[in-house]
Amino acid sequence: MSTNGLIGKSVKRVEDKRFITGRGKYTDDIILPGQTYAAFLRSPFAHAKILEITTEAAKAMPGVIAIYTGEDLREVNGVPCGWQVNFKDGTTMKEPKHPLLAVDKVRHVGEAVAIVIADTREHAVDAAEAIMVDYEDLSCVIDPLKAAQPGAPLVHDDVPGNVCFDWNLGNPPGEVDEALKNSAHVTTLEFVNQRLVPNAIEPRSYNSSYDEANDRYTLYTSTQNPHLIRLLMCAFVLGIPEHKVRVVGPDVGGGFGSKIFHYTEEALLTWCSRKTRRPVKWTATRSESFVTDAHGRDHVTKAEMGFDNEGRITALRVKTYANLGAYLSTFGSCVPTYLHGTLMQGLYTTPKINIDVTAVFSHSTPVDAYRGAGRPEATYLLERLIDLGAQELNIDPAELRFKNFIPPFDGVNQPGYQTQVALQYDSGNYEGVLKKGLEMAGYENFRNEQKANSNGKLIGIGISTYIEACGIAPSAVVGSLGARAGLYEVGQVRVQPTGKVSVYTGAHSHGQGHETTFAQVVADKLGIPMDDVEIIHGDSEAVAFGMGTYGSRSLAVGGSAIVKSIEKIIEKGKKIVAHKLEASADDIEFANGKFTVKGTDKSMGFGDVALTAYVPHVYPKDLEPGLDFSSFYDPANFTYPFGCHIAIVEVEKATGKVQLKRFIAVDDVGNVINPMIVEGQIHGGVVQGVGQALFEGADYDENGQLTNASYMDYCMPRADDLPMIETGSQVTPCPHNPLGVKGAGEAGCIGSTPAVVNAVLDALWKGGYTVKDIPMPLTSERVWKAMQ
Amino acid sequence: MNITINVKVNGVKYSNTVEPRLLLVHYLRDVLRLTGTHIGCDTSNCGACTIHLNGMATKSCTLLAVQADGMEITTIEGLAKDDQLHPLQEAFRECHGLQCGFCTPGMIMTAADLLQHNPNPNEEEIRTALEGNLCRCTGYHNIVKAVEFAATKMKKEVAV
Ligand code: FES
Ligand code: FES
């Protein structure tokens, strides 16, 4: 039904104007009448008893309005977890209370112990420094393997062995053991997928107010899903009426997962605003962000992949210890399980798969979804294993992949592919992306150059072919797997009397450019100029409901909800036109913004129809006036983007320094609405994945101190660390949503990390250094050490 | 003891009495309400707060408001002249050099300084110049393209 060609065009972004002129409005930019400021006193210990808190002196300091400690909130609930995972024996996971302020004990460095509210930020900080806390330092445990050892210090007294749950998925373990035993070769890898700090450049920020006269609350929050925050905060934490609470996620400076979760500070500020009858604002300092934003990854894994004599994969057995940190964050439980274990099929026909996950608490910042969430960990595991297998079997890594790919299927003429680990892939052409990637990289030439090795340099090429599950997700499916929410999306299309269109979406943009992409979809489908369409998002008062943006779901789920509403608009428009032009509704066609009676030149423009709907003088008797529809779209399946990433690196022999020379990304994300925006998403994702491979990692010492908790110490990719990213694409439409789209937000980050690591190991291996693995990040020191 | 400072910001003169410990970035954001200048860190490593101080790109979180007394400041809000976007602003839009927009003001101010001193930078020079500004969204690819685009455009404008 594409009508004016806007779908598929690299339209420049409509939201950019405000950002390039400094007129974006982020939460910290907002100052409310009577504004007060909060500051936190946070734990310097990873694990300690709180013996006494003295606030008298602090309370007497200038500008202080109130100080609260955990004692004041003993009766208030903690923040909830949104996904229930059961132990293998069927019992419910352990869910210790995650209090808004620590009570009796602190369990990670940075946990909030007291909040100060004052008239200025400076006064609040001064007073927080004047609070005296008497701690009794206790022993702590950070490493997930150690935390699961008998005798490890307990994070929660009522969680034996620190185990939140254990979980298993796939073929019966016995069958997998047997298949591995009968394999011609088994490749084994024990590795760590290190903990990362998401580091959106806008720190978390909240501004909460209470209007006593109307008994209404307003929370401005740097969130990826305002409605979900409202629901969790009202129903689970504070017990305040949802319809009296407005939650707004204004411009948000990046999220990458870290702004999905309902954080303690959101609920606490709201609670405080009611207590003090003043608006309360808090913006994290970067130092606070490092120890309080939910972290990502942190898996310790042993994986074994069996091969037969021809190099075909026979089986995969995985054991992962996942670190959850000190408390269960909103989706902490589903990341290592349903977003990780379910991806163990990868792109390969592996007939027997079993994965076992033990999720443990430790005295560290909570861990949750970070760009890709579980899928980067799964991809890293598979793509490192297959590459190592190729080295060990002396088969070219590209060839080994071609041998094992699931053959192409479009999900329409050929059925979807049923994996051994619960999911059914929608459509795919996996060999296609690898072929294209190899071509773009000049693979054969590179191999020849590498063999000739004329200048004595260590050069390597690394491949990663990935698949991910996104567009989350069918509510019934995720519900049966433990999700405590539905995962549909809401899209309302309101045609104004003049034919201009306001669109309300439950998706939330924090850099993805929805105001452009969604407007393209609407303008294209209605055959009207993009200027006539406005996308409204992020305000619970404006948008009926929404599940927000994460898991690359905005377009696949949110866009589909909008399309559903557009279909209803056109349907109703046809009835209006049929009545006016005295024809049958079945004979009305809609194209290019015009309703026409089939086979005649009688027609009505979209604007006329809108006006008629609102000024219904000549109007069907049985039809309501107005042209405004809302839809909930619950997807039929996940979507499964896939692709091939190739890295080319040079390793300096003397120092072990890795230089990323080229990066090629061929991604198949289904149909594309705006190629410019999709490429931008890929660039950003790739660089975050490169960050994990080469630079990033949260370093905890044995006392539970995060030793690199600043931008001075935590190394993130900077402009001069990187080459240009070469992108290529392939399109295999998603067969089950109306736009045929799959999602592009996380792909870059999922595919890139193993490509880089494989490239470095390829360089070493081909240079005569038989190195099986180097723990990420691959710093000069680690690479050099591995070469010695 | 509060101190009175006189500054010229985006062509407008201001006189304010401020706490000696007030950072310049907080003065711009909270006192003058010029919120286009952002804060991304507390160690002067992200560049989100970059402004021009007497014509030079400066991280406004690295100095106190009182140190700017008597100086001229340009923030992102003052970069467009007579409603005419600066070529860099246009280029960032044209090349999709921004996503969430949080690093963007700092990136543009830093790049503007580069182009003042080096109207014809190559890719490496651009990357080196932007090395003090963090962006978590774009992977820098399109930011580099945007700076190249603006440089070309500015050369053309000079030539005309
Ligand atoms: S806020 Fe100034 S450099 Fe980060
Ligand atoms: S555009 Fe988001 S940090 Fe650069």
TrEMBL record, chain A:
Record-annotated Aldehyde oxidase/xanthine dehydrogenase a/b hammerhead domain positions: 21-139
Keyword Oxidoreductase: yes
Any GO MF annotation of the entry: oxidoreductase activity
Gene3D superfamilies: Aldehyde oxidase/xanthine dehydrogenase, a/b hammerhead, Aldehyde oxidase/xanthine dehydrogenase, molybdopterin binding domain
Keyword terms: Molybdenum, Oxidoreductase
SUPFAM superfamilies: CO dehydrogenase molybdoprotein N-domain-like (SSF54665), Molybdenum cofactor-binding domain (SSF56003)
PANTHER family registered for this protein in UniProt: ALDEHYDE OXIDASE 1-RELATED, XANTHINE DEHYDROGENASE
Annotated protein name in UniProt: Carbon monoxide dehydrogenase
Organism this protein belongs to: Flavihumibacter solisilvae
Lineage: Bacteria, Pseudomonadati, Bacteroidota, Chitinophagia, Chitinophagales
UniProtKB/TrEMBL annotation, chain B:
Cross-referenced Pfam families: Fer2_2
Source superkingdom: Bacteria
Protein's UniProt keywords contain Membrane: no
InterPro entries named in the record: 2Fe-2S-bd, 2Fe-2S-bd_dom_sf, 2Fe-2S_ferredoxin-like_sf, 2Fe-2S_ferredoxin-type, Beta-grasp_dom_sf, Diverse_Oxidoreductases
Keywords in alphabetical order: 2Fe-2S, Iron, Iron-sulfur, Metal-binding, Oxidoreductase
UniProt source species: Flavihumibacter solisilvae
An example molecular function term from Gene Ontology annotations: metal ion binding
Name of the protein in question: Carbon monoxide dehydrogenase
2Fe-2S ferredoxin-type domain residues: 3-79
